[in-house]
């Protein structure tokens, strides 16, 4: 590994993480998306390696699941403490391999740590039930038991936050887990695994299996009858493929898939607050989030005022390397991502849309793309229905509440939606009418450890975080107890 522009603490986490799992016959390179620099060579594990990791997780399951919830929670609390203590170093690792600004990366680390803390406490609250019996000599009990070995496939856009959001409830419930991180960002997962080991997590209760080609090792997770649950965050296309592959073993699934979030501004909105919200949800992580505002609808009466304020705010954004002071937007993850975003913009402009701001690759070159505002976007344009995953904001006017609800719901996706209004009646009407798993009314920072995260329609199955999040990692067992005869 070459000398890196990061602290000794961050370098040490990377070095220790690279040793996890032992030597490998194949390696793949991890590159810095801001400048293309080589960061490290990571083990490129095979299907055989994944089979071995699943077998080890299966062997570790009986002892781990037999521990009390309090014992498991204590280890999770120690892990949480170590993640918080190493937040600066973990943020450096994250910025190095993913590109987001350092302050934003640190926010992700602490966001992810919150899930570890939450589920450390929630482990003791997996309650069963006693059902009133149907006969005097019987008792009916409902038990909740850990599902078994879990497979988790995590994304590159939030490699730390999405890992802890999956791993923490699995461990709290008593499951063992094998994690396949995205090939662009494996170092964050390995660093978290190092700290989990330091916290006292027994060997093989959690394993991280890195690989350059996800399909080879992910296929083991979907096909193995020993893996009883799969949790995936990523595209809808891949989620559907995994769902099909899991059908043969009838696995329990959690799928957090693509989004096409509408952001609606009504004419009675607080425009300054709406602009701030649109900035936060559109340009966080350079627009590379599944809950990013994808379609901005603004009521015609305030369209000009909103567009002017929004353009001023976007124009002031500072683009650059995530380690540079004051950077607000970093690079896209790789060249393919830039090509996709640029293709959507070129298609829209070619069909009549207007680039009010930006509209092409950034002068920095490489994986940087200009923050862009488009107007005149029509249904026939690719960008109107695609998940953009980049710093591009299409703004479209609308006239009535009924019209914009119909347009917002006209998508197979149903992850997140946002709207801005000070009319309390409208708040309830619109929130109930929008076909999304999460709705923000005058708010865009909706995700936290105590709230259920997930979508409907083709945006996924299941929920992560909150008291609902641990339910996906347990099985319900009904115990019918007979022979309780009346005393003589």
UniProtKB/TrEMBL annotation:
It is an enzyme of class 1 (oxidoreductase). The keyword 4Fe-4S does not apply. Residues 25-478 form the Aldehyde dehydrogenase domain. InterPro entries: Ald_DH/histidinol_DH, Ald_DH_C, Ald_DH_CS_GLU, Ald_DH_N, Aldehyde_DH_dom, Aldehyde_DH_Superfamily, Succ_semiAld_DH. It comes from the Bacteria. Its EC number is 1.2.1.16, 1.2.1.20, 1.2.1.79. The active site is at residue 256. One of its GO terms (molecular function) is succinate-semialdehyde dehydrogenase (NADP+) activity. GO terms for biological process: gamma-aminobutyric acid catabolic process. Pfam families: Aldedh. Keywords: Oxidoreductase. Belongs to the aldehyde dehydrogenase family. This is Succinate-semialdehyde dehydrogenase/glutarate-semialdehyde dehydrogenase. It comes from Sphingosinicella soli.
């Amino acid at each position: 590994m070459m000398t890196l522009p990061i602290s000794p603490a961050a370098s040490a986490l990377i070095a220790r993480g690279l040793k996890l799992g032992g030597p490998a016959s194949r390696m793949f390179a991890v590159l810095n998306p801001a400048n293309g620099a080589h960061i490290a060579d990571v083990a490129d594990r095979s299907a055989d390696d994944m089979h071995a990791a699943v077998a080890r997780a299966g062997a570790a399951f009986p002892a781990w699941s037999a521990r009390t919830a309090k014992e498991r929670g204590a280890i999770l609390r120690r892990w949480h403490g170590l993640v918080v203590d190493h937040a600066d170093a973990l943020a450096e690792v994250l910025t190095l391999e993913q590109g987001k600004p350092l302050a934003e990366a640190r926010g992700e680390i602490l966001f992810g740590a919150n899930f570890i803390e939450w589920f450390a406490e929630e482990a003791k609250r997996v309650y069963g039930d006693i059902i009133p019996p149907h006969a005097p000599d019987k008792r009916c009990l409902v038990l909740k038991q850990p599902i078994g070995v879990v497979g988790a496939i995590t994304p590159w856009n939030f490699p730390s936050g999405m890992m802890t959001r999956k791993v923490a409830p699995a461990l709290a419930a008593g499951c063992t887990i094998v994690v396949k991180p995205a090939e662009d960002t494996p170092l964050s997962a390995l660093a978290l695994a190092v700290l989990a080991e330091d916290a006292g997590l027994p060997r093989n209760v959690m394993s991280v299996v890195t690989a350059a080609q996800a399909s080879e090792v992910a296929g083991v997770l979907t096909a193995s009858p020993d893996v009883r649950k799969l949790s995936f965050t990523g595209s809808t296309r891949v989620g559907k493929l995994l769902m099909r592959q899991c059908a043969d073993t009838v696995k329990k699934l959690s799928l957090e898939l693509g989004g096409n979030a509408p952001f609606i501004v009504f004419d009675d909105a607080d425009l300054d607050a709406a602009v701030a919200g649109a900035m936060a949800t559109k340009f966080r992580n350079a627009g590379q989030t599944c809950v990013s505002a994808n379609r901005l609808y603004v009521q015609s009466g305030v369209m000009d005022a909103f567009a002017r304020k929004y353009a001023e705010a976007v124009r002031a954004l500072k683009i650059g390397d995530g380690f540079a002071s004051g950077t607000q937007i970093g690079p896209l993850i790789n060249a393919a991502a830039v090509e996709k975003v640029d293709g959507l913009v070129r298609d829209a402009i070619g069909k009549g849309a207007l680039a009010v701001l930006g509209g092409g690759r950034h002068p920095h070159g490489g994986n940087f793309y200009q923050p862009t505002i488009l107007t005149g976007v029509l249904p026939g344009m690719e960008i109107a229905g695609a998940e953009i995953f980049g710093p591009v904001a299409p703004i479209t006017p609308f006239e009535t509440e009924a019209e914009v609800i119909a347009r917002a719901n006209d998508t197979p996706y149903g992850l997140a939606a946002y709207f801005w209004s000070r009319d309390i009646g409208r708040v309830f009407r619109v929130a109930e009418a929008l076909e999304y798993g999460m709705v923000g009314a005058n708010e865009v920072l909706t995700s936290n450890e105590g709230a259920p995260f997930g979508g409907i329609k083709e945006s996924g199955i299941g929920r992560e975080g909150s008291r609902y999040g641990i339910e996906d990692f347990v099985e319900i067992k009904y115990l019918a107890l007979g022979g309780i005869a009346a005393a003589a």
